Amino acid sequence: MADLVARHDRGQLQNYDPERHRLTNAALDFGIEEAKRIKDWPTLERAVDEKIAEQQKFVVWWNAAVRRAGQPKKEFAKNAANSLTEKEATKLTGMPHQRVSDILNRLAKPDKYRERLLGAGYHAAMLEAGNVRGTQGTGDNEWYTPAEYIDLARLVLGEIDLDPASTPLANERVKATQIFTEAENGLMQDWVGNIWLNPPYAQPAIQHFADKMVAELEAGHVTAAIVLTHNYTDTAWFQQLAHAASAICFTRGRIRFEAPNGDQAAPTQGQAFFYFGSDVGPFAVVFADVGFVVNVVPAPV
Questions:
Q1: Each residue of 225-239: b (16+ CB within 10 Å) or e?
Q2: 3-state secondary structure string, the chain?
Q3: How far apart (Å, rounded) are the C-alpha atoms in residues 157 and 152?
Q4: Distance from C-alpha of 34 to C-alpha of 237, rounded to nearest angstrom
Q5: Which residues contact 100 (CB under 8 A, 6 or more apart)?
Q6: Which of 94, 171, 233, 278 is the most exposed place for a label (fewest CB within 10 A)?
Q7: Which domains are seen in the chain, by residue range?
C-alpha cells in the first residue's frame, strides 16, 4: 500500500470522488468486454490500464479515509482527508471491506492482474499475430429501433439532446444533438438534457446502463428520458429502472429491431418503454397505441 500511496499526490487524493467508483469501474468493465468482443486490442489495453489506475486510486482513498474496525478515531492518521467507519464507507461506495481487500491483493501483483484482465483471447492474438498494436477491431452487433418508435419518442421529448449508446448510422433516424459511440463509452461520459436510450441488451452491459441512467437522474442532469428494453420484469436492472421511472409502456406485440443491412430481429418477448420526467401526460397519450401505459407510484420514503 505504501508504494501505491507514493504514486498518488495528496491533492489528487483529496479531489477523488469515491461515490463514483462503482459507476466508473462498471464503465471500464463494459469497455473491456466490448473491446474483447470486437477484438480491438489497443482499446482493450487502454481500458485495462484505466481500470487498474482507477482501482489504485480507490484503495489509496480507502486506506487514507477509512478507520479499521476497532481502531479508535484518535489513533487514525492525522493527515487523513476523512474519518469514516468501514460501515459508513461501504454504504457510501457500495464496496464492502472484503472486496477492497481482494482488489488490493490483485494490485499487489499488477503484471499478473493485468494479464488476467486482458484475457485469453488477447494473449492468443498476440501469439498468432506477433504484434497487433495499432490495428482496429471489427464486428457488428447493432440492432436499431424502427423509425416509427423514434418519432413517437421525439414527440414526447421534443429535441433529443443525447443518445449515449449509438452509432452515426443509428443517429440518422434518432437525430440526437450528441451521441456517444462504443469507442467513446457513454458510461464514462455525463448525460445531460433529454435522453433517448436503447442500451446493449447483454449482461452485464444492460445493468451498467441502468445504473448510469439512475445515477444521472439522481444527480439532476437528465431533464427527461425514454429508455427502450426487453420486458424482463424479474431482473434487477428492470426493477431498478421501473422504480426510478415515472411511467412505463408495455408493448402490444414485439418490436422487430433492425440490423444495418435491413434484417429484422425476431425477439421472443415484448418490450417496455420507460419514461423519466415530470410530464407523464404526453407520454401516456403518444404511447397509448403502442401498448399498455402504467404510471409508477413512488415508493414510500
A1: bbbbbbbeeebebbe
A2: CHHHHHCCCHHHHHCCCHHHHHHHHHHHHHHHHHHHHCCCHHHHHHHHHHHHHHHHHHHHHHHHHEECCCCCHHHCCCCCCCCEEHHHHHHHHCCCHHHHHHHHHHHCCHHHHHHHHHHHHHHHHHHHHCCCCCCCCCCCCCCECCHHHHHHHHHHHCCCCEECCCCCCCHHHHCCCEECCCCCCHHHCCCCEEEEECCCCCCCHHHHHHHHHHHHHHCCCEEEEEEEEECCCCCHHHHHHHHHCCEEEEECCCCCCECCCCCECCCCCCEEEEEECCCHHHHHHHCCCCEEEEECCCCCC
A3: 9
A4: 19
A5: 58, 59, 62
A6: 278
A7: 2-129 (no CATH), 147-295 (3.40.50)
> C-alpha grid cell for residue 86?
468501514
One digit per residue, the tens of pLDDT, for the chain of length 301 reads: 334 433 444 444 556 788 888 888 888 888 888 888 888 887 888 888 888 888 888 888 888 888 776 555 555 444 454 578 888 888 888 888 888 888 888 888 877 888 888 888 877 766 554 333 222 222 334 678 999 999 999 999 999 999 999 999 999 999 999 999 988 999 999 999 999 999 988 878 889 999 999 999 999 999 999 999 999 998 999 999 999 999 999 999 999 888 777 777 777 789 999 999 999 999 999 999 999 999 987 655 4
